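Re: weekly structure request thread

Next one in the queue (334 aa):
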Amino acid sequence: MTSSPLDLVVAINPSASFGRGRAAGPAVVAALRAAGHRVTPLTAPSYAKLLELTEAALQARPDALVVVGGDGMVHLGTGLLAGSGIPLGIVPSGTGNDMARGLGIPVGDRDAAVRHLLDALGSEPRVIDTARIDHGDGRGAFACVLSAGFDAIVNERANRMRRPRGRSRYLLALLRELALLRPIEYRLVVDGVPETVRALLVAVGNNTSLGGGSMRVVPDALLDDGLLDLFVVAPMSRLAFLRIFPRVFSGRHTSDPRVSIRRARQIAIEADAVVAYADGERIGPLPVTIAVRPASLAVLAPVPEAAHEVVPETAPAAEATPGPARETVPGVAD
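Done, posted below.
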C-alpha cells in the first residue's frame, strides 16, 4: 500500500478465546501507533454494538480495517467491507482462526501476526472472493465456510450450553448430537438446477476449513477462483460416521464415495428445522441462498506465488453491492 502513515480502524473483540485474548487488542493498537499510523480503536460489550461502531467509523473511508479476534470478527469485517475496496487486516486471537490460516497469517503467535500486518500495510493487498448470503433476516456475507447440517446442529447446541467453557463444550455437544444423528432432506438449487438430497451434512466453502483449522471440509477450495465448493455427506450409520469423521481433520474424507464436493457459483439450501452458521456465526434458519462475489474483498495478506485462474462466467454474476453484516447475539466467542 504505502510506507507513509495510514488511517486505521481497529475493531477488537475483548471476549475472543473466552477472554484469553483480551490483551491482544491493546498490543495491536500500540504496535500500529509505534509504527506511526493513526489508529481508531473500537471495542464494545456486544457484537451488535461493535458492528454499529465499526460501520460508522468506516464512513470516513480509512486506509484499512483491522480486526482482532477470531473468525467471528472476520465475519464482521467481511460483511462491512466486501465490495468497498477498503482492505481487511486480521490479527487472530480467537478460538477459531480459519481465515487467518487460509491466508497464511501466523496463528498462535501474536507478535508474529503483528509483524505480518505491519509488513502487509506496506504492500499491495491480496484480493479474494466472498459469498453473499440471502436469508429470512436479510442479507450478509461470509469468507470461510457456511454449514447447514450436523456440524451446525452441534454448534447450535453448544451455544445453548453454559458449561463447560472452551473447546470441551463443543465436544460434549457433538457427543450428544451424535446420539440423535439422522439424515435430513435438503432441497437444493445448484447454479439454477433443483435437486432433493438426503444428507447428514451440507456445507458451502470459500476457504478450506472450519473448527479452528481442525476440520478441512473442502481441502481443495481456493479463495480466488470465482467459485464455491459444495460439500455433501450422504446418509450413513453412526458407526460409519464415526469412522469417516476423523478423516475430516486431515482432508482424507474426500475419497469416500459417500462424500461429494463440487463447485458452483450460486447455491440455494432449504430444509426443515435446520439453522445455518457461517464463519462460526449464527445466520438463522434455512432457507438461504449463497452466491459467490468474485474478487470482492481486499485483505492484508501475501499473494500466493501461483495466481489462480478465475473460471469464466457462464451464468449471471453475483450482485456486487455490499450489504451490512448481520447482527448476531451478544457474547460471541470470537
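The helical segments are 24-34, 47-57, 71-81, 98-103, 110-120, 150-160, 167-178, 238-244. The two ends are 28 Å apart (CA to CA).
Next request, please.
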